[in-house]
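Notes from hallway chat w/ T.B., transcribed later so I don't forget. T.B. wanted the structure written out for a chain they're using in a teaching module, and asked if we could keep both sequence and structure tokens in one place. Agreed to drop them here.
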Amino acid sequence: MALDQVRAIVGGEVFTGNGFASGDVAIAGECIAETPGEGIDIDASGCYVIPGLVDIHFHGSAGGDISDGDEAGLHAMGAYEASRGVTAICPATMTLDHTTLLNAVSTAAAYVPSPVESDLVGINLEGPYISPGKVGAQNPQHVRTPNVEEFVELQEAAGGLIKLVDIAPEEEGALDFIDALGDKVRVSVAHTTTDYDQAAEAFAHGAKHLTHLYNAMPGMHHRNPGPIPAAAERDDITAEIIADGVHIHPSMVRLAFNMFGDDRMILVSDTLRAAGLEDGVYDLGGQDVTVKGPVATIENGALAGSVSDLMRCLTVAVTTMDIPLTSAVKAATINPARAIGVDGSYGTLDAGKMADAVILDKDTLAIKQVVLRGRAL
């Protein structure tokens, strides 16, 4: 598949990490460089140039789902995500039986992207160590308490690719799990009925993340604050949020950015296999999900993830939720890359990083061009 090698992106407003500045992005081969290599120049006049997005929590797209353990599905996901400017992906498994999870992570570990597909930079083990009282769209049949031995086996099958694992800190064995693995994988509080004290203890033991903030966790109350303030008052905890315009009211998204700051907020899509497809009924972890427009629900009416890819979430956050563009870009690029430990290669437009970039129209934020590993899609 012949794609044009890019030597420079010129004339745009380039994301610097804390804002935008007029300038060029030099590229040599697959990497951003100090001086351009060989290839074509892309004119980005009238556009923003931002790093390729990094989605650390989505299940699938374009008909594929990581939990299927299907190589063709992963390639369909990779191609769709790249076309939407999401150039590094860390897809999330569901609450499933051990054999299915083993197959899913081992298949993901063997994935090698084609020239038009995103890099798979990690795996997010969203289930099965969650609370039976906050399953959301997860399958309650396979919920179980945190198990160090099982995780180690899954991580070995994944070749070390599991970067995030969810736990409900109130469940038996949760703190022991964090003690054993907190320095080896980023542990996230998720799908939980935890109170403030239990959450604070989990963070003190080494949990570092909150999964889809506000969703599948107790809300904030002035006498029973719950896990969100326990995370917000520590400067080492990141929080991810689904800014698709369906899951969370815009005022609560703004509140989250104000509480955590834009260095700790992470935009995620939580997309399903239906992303990029028509309305209909789709499978999610063995349950039927009905998709109508931007809304996906299971049989009991509960929200079941999203059908809005991360680029759309970024656009919604900026255009309808009044999140500053700089903050939204940070939350969709360097912050998630840093959270899962891949910021050495992804998340900024600094020299030496992978040459992944997205050129956006300044007025509409529509994608004008995606550059993937130094080549124009």
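Follow-up for T.B.: The first strand starts at residue 6 and ends at 15. Might be a good example for the class.
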